[in-house]
Amino acid sequence: MSSGRPIKTLLFALLATAALFGQDFRAGVGRALITPSTPVWLAGFAARTKPAESIGLDLYAKALALEDGRGNRVIIVSADLLGVTREITEEVARRVAQRHGLRREQILFNASHTHSGPEVWPGLRVAPVESAENNARVKEYGRFLMDQFEAVIGQAIGSLQPASMSYSFTQARFATNRRKEQLAELRPGEIFPAPVDPRVPVVRVSGRDGSVRAVLFGYACHNTVLTADTNEISGDYAGYAQKALENEFPGSTAVFLILCGGDQRPAPRGSRELAIKHGEALAADVAKVVRGEMAASSGELKCAIRETQLRFQTHTRESYVAEAQSSDLFAARRGRTMLEAIAGGQPIRSTQYPAQAMALGRDLVLLALGGEVVVDYSLRFAREYPDLKLIVAGYSNDVMGYIPSQRVWMEGGYEAGDAMMYFNQPGWFTPDVEDKVTEAAHGALKDIGFSCHTCESRKGK
Ligand SMILES: [Zn+2]
């Protein structure tokens, strides 16, 4: 080898190939068991009558760390829980900033919204129980969660190894729009659209030897195949799907993200057998994608987070006085909380809201929104960013209530605002909720270099 030229050419060819197949990444994973000890009240259904005493499926917190060739890092944390709360995610982010030097926007938290997991301090105490003893227990579990999230992030960063990343999309069909029956009762005779979003994004992370190290996938559907009657700890369909994928690809970590499934529920539902059936069917479709041709992801990892304030409709003290006396535990709790806030001179008028954007390469972008986001949002952003491979997750970084679109807000009902009581929030959002959420999302996407073309052309008209 006397001439430098062939070496240079060879080097260039190798680098080009590496870029093409996205092999300029490093990836690491972490996992912790977060199954609470029994008996424990499960959160999500007001109709439960007793604590759960059995474990159908263990609950996990998992983390996927990604690093590009320039050293930019992002961490995706997911958990089999009803949701994550700002109090927990901000504290974990603070610790991770100290220990690993990561900024807040580099860490994304998503929880599957399983209704067969424990209550989450402080905003997701959605179990029909109110006692000092139970509150102390839920608070203690919150502290445990913070430690576990911190640990899985540390594991993921500590296990970073050369990796390639590729992606594709498939579809699932077991989600239905659950507002149909509700609206038929609420406003009989009228016809309502009942959109669903069947898209299932799949991201494969492979080691240098080609083995599957992680599979990131998502679906817009409540994890409520198991109902109040089953009353056992479980990750529901998403838990069974992750388990099936990890069996299919030994040594891999499957990470589920719930997308904009605020108004989506599985059908049929109501038993462990059905949760297994939906989970395994979803896993089989995802596995087929993982084994097939996928587009290589290459380029930089980028991230940004925007915060906005979502306002609540004005409310008066009088409306809560009666509520505080209610025999309904959730109504009474909300009434008391609001009266205390008013008495303290700080009535609750708005809530903070996070919208996070993460580019996992050149055109694969994860938009992570807080709250129980209805499906209209993912359909809207897909229209607004036709050039992007966009994954729109809900239930990310905080769950403060349902996030209705303007259409859902106008239609009324549970997701429009009636459910706010269960989140201990004062009432419905103001009708500009979709504008505010969208503005924050557009801002976060713009911060990482993506503008909404259809929005610009709309403004121009
Ligand atoms: Zn929900």
Biggest beta sheet attributes = 9 strands, mixed
Low-pLDDT residue spans = 6-22
Structure classification: alpha+beta
List each distinct ligand once: zinc ion
Terminal-residue CA separation: 63 Å
| Residues in helices, as a percent range | 25-40%
Overall body shape:
globular
Number of helices: 12
Average the pLDDT over all residues and give the rounded result: 93
User: What is the alpha-carbon Rg in Å?
Assistant: 22 Å
Q: What share of the residues does DSSP label as strand, in percent? A: 15-25%
Total domain units: 1
Structure description:
The protein is an alpha+beta fold and 461 residues long. Helices cover 35% and strands 25% of the residues. α2 (86-100) packs parallel to α3, α5 (236-248) packs across α6 (272-291) and α7 (317-324) packs across α8 (329-343). The longest helix has 27 residues, at 132-158. It is globular and about 65 Å long. The model is unreliable at 6-22 (pLDDT under 50). The protein binds zinc ion (ZN).
Task: Set down the secondary structure blueprint.
Elements lengths: L3 H17 L4 E9 L8 E2 L16 E8 L5 E7 L6 H15 L6 E5 L5 E2 L13 H27 L2 E11 L3 E3 L1 H8 L12 E9 L4 E8 L16 H13 L4 E6 L5 E3 L5 H20 L3 E3 L3 E11 L5 H8 L4 H15 L6 E11 L3 E6 L2 E2 L2 H9 L4 E5 L8 E2 L2 H6 L21 H15 L5 H8 L1
Parallel strand pairs: 4-5, 10-11, 16-18, 17-19
Antiparallel strand pairs: 1-3, 1-7, 2-6, 3-4, 7-9, 7-13, 8-12, 9-10, 14-15, 15-16
Helix pairs in contact: 2-3, 5-6, 7-8
